[in-house]
Design brief:
With 353 residues, this protein is an alpha/beta fold. It contains ten helices and eleven strands. The chain has two domains: 1-39 and 233-353, 60s Ribosomal Protein L30, Chain: A; 43-223, Beta-carbonic Anhydrase, Chain A. The longest helix has 24 residues, at 302-325. This is Carboxysome shell carbonic anhydrase.
């Protein structure tokens, strides 16, 4: 039976099992060695800003070890670097990399489908031009914060075509590099193409972007001729609030609200409306949905205690918004509060008396 059609208790357990599997994979000796070896050769810090859509699994699509790409995920990939908390986290990430002598590649993504417009980004009503314009605005904000010379932080706009899993890299003078248009033997020419596309990209950052593009070319080529299930139907039954949801890359399962915007009630209300519509249309069972709040922490003690408190606040706040705006939906809500041990990616449920 498909996951969406199972009783709510089974769906929740399957999701938690997925999180445990993700942590086990992340913590395996092979995965740890792969990260260490990769970072030794490619020390540029890679950060991506992307939609919560589960199809945008960049480590998978670029064949990059888990833990190399740091994701910021939000409904529709909608961000504003003026948001206080988001700006602080991003600045801390940049400063940490620079202190180690490394540059930062900030990949700002939007996504779309060539085969069917309605498979595009729901956050922008499937309007690719609007999604691209927003990505470019984030790029301008990043330049304002970190410098327009791009010497230390390079903000790069990338499209993600979900039918082929191909990256579309946007460069100077509105030029683009569409990985789906390249033949498999074009790998050796990627460095020249990238240098022409982004002539102001520092050599070390370009060197560390190339493995992602080569991995994407290999991934896209491996999918050619394969009959993939591309049709999507909104069947989300989970609302996630906070951070630490790296394990969630199942299409049409979860709506992720990052804790970045000063006004979280808007996106939480939107997510609840989508869940309610899914139930009303019969796309998911009406026996319940999951509200999951999570906050990552690095160390035990104060850091973990603060993460617990933050997760509890996010859970209570989201539950209040849903109860106020969708009281009938709130009656069938299952609430789970968690923290994530970030070094291991282990999701830890909190149990309250």
């Amino acid at each position: 039976m498909p996951l969406h059609d199972r009783p709510i208790e089974e769906r929740i357990e399957a999701l938690l099992a997925l999180s445990r599997e993700h942590a086990d994979t992340f913590c395996s000796p092979s995965a740890w060695l792969a990260r260490e070896r990769y970072l030794a050769n490619h020390p540029t810090r890679i950060v991506t800003m992307k939609c919560m859509d589960g199809r945008l699994h960049l480590p998978h699509a670029t064949r990059t070890p888990l833990g190399i790409i740091t994701p910021f995920r939000n409904l529709g990939g909608i961000f504003n670097l003026g948001w206080p908390y988001l700006g602080e986290i991003l600045t801390e990430t940049v400063e940490s990399a620079v202190r180690r002598g490394n540059g930062v590649l900030l990949i700002i993504t939007y996504h779309f489908s060539r085969g069917e417009k309605l498979r595009g980004c729901a956050g922008f009503a499937c309007d690719t031009h609007a999604a691209l314009a927003h990505a470019r605005e984030i790029r301008r904000q990043a330049e304002r914060i970190f410098g327009r010379d791009h010497r230390h932080v390079y903000p790069l706009v990338c499209g993600f075509e979900t039918d082929s899993d191909a990256l579309i890299v946007h460069g100077a003078d509105d030029a683009t590099l569409d990985i789906s248009e390249l033949a498999a033997d074009a790998e050796d020419d990627l460095e020249r193409r990238l240098a022409n596309l982004c002539p102001d990209m520092p050599v070390d950052i370009r060197r560390d972007l190339l493995p992602l593009l080569k991995g994407n070319l290999q991934h896209v080529d491996s999918l050619r001729g394969i009959d993939r299930e591309l049709g999507i139907e909104h069947r989300e039954w989970v609302i996630c609030v906070g951070r630490g949801f790296d394990f969630l890359h199942l299409p049409n399962t979860a709506l992720i609200v990052g804790p970045y915007s000063p006004d979280l009630s808007g996106p939480i209300g939107t997510a609840a409306a989508i869940i309610a519509a899914n139930m009303k249309a019969g796309r998911i069972r009406d026996d319940g949905f999951l509200l999951l709040a999570s906050t990552p922490y690095e160390t035990v003690g104060v850091d973990r205690a603060r993460a617990e408190l933050k997760s509890c606040f996010l859970a209570e706040f989201a539950a209040q918004v849903i109860a106020r705006e969708h009281p009938a939906l709130a009656d069938c809500m299952t609430l789970r509060t968690a923290v994530v041990h970030w070094p291991s990616r282990r999701l830890e449920l909190l149990h309250h008396a």
